[in-house]
Design brief:
This protein is an alpha/beta fold. The chain is 22% helix and 28% strand. The radius of gyration is 17 Å and the shape is globular. The mean pLDDT is 89.
Length: 207
């Protein structure tokens, strides 16, 4: 089985697990300009070859000669669109830094002990509610991150999917980006350390 390299696309950079360690190191592409409400990796499209080269060199430095035989297990923000997911897959697959890629949202990685739960997170663009069942996103709802009502989000979480309207499921608040303090009373808060511990070892079959 090929070696799996967990990787997280955060709101402003990329984290990659170090070789033979559960710690993560940061890859930041130099020369990118911040754009309001636009994920930073969109700018990779303007200079694809250059960005792929720097990323490949970064992985090569961390993983040595066999880096290209690994599978990148990419964790993406919860509001990643289907088109963005395709771009992410193609960008990293064609970077030469791996033999294959697999992808899942951050919400799907919040719990290994529950088959059903609600996740809530905040990206650069949205507040995102997700209903996760057996690692699949079965329902999702977005709210503009600049204009939302916490009480409404909490009520929506109770009826996001017909499966949970009467049975109830745990709610996990993804505070990986340290931007969810006002939602802390909605459920169990997942800290950055909690999250990194959960994905330090990933089963590619579930991604």
């Amino acid at each position: 089985m090929p070696k799996t390299i967990p990787m997280i696309i955060t709101n402003d950079n990329i984290l990659i697990r170090k070789k033979d360690s559960e710690e993560f190191v940061t890859f930041t592409m130099p020369g990118l300009d911040e754009a309001c409400n636009i994920p930073f990796y969109h700018q990779f499209a303007k200079k694809i070859s250059e960005c792929q080269y720097y990323f490949k060199q970064f992985v090569k430095k961390e993983y040595g000669k066999k880096y290209s035989k690994s599978v990148l297990a990419i964790i993406t923000p919860d509001d990643t669109s289907p088109l963005e997911a395709i771009f992410i897959n193609e960008f990293f697959l064609n970077s030469g830094a791996c033999k294959a890629v697999a992808q899942m949202t951050m919400g799907q990685a919040l719990s290994k002990n529950h088959t059903r739960y609600i996740s809530i997170s905040k990206s650069t663009r949205n507040i995102i509610l997700q209903y996760i069942n057996n690692n699949e996103v079965c329902a999702k709802k977005y709210y503009d991150c600049n204009e939302y009502d916490i009480k409404k989000i909490f009520e929506d979480a109770k009826r996001l999917h017909i499966d949970i309207e009467y049975s109830g499921v745990p709610i996990f608040v993804n505070n990986f980006n340290l931007n969810m303090d006002e939602f802390s009373e909605m459920g169990t808060v997942i800290t950055p350390k909690d999250f990194l511990d959960k994905i330090a070892v990933i089963d590619v079959e579930k991604v």
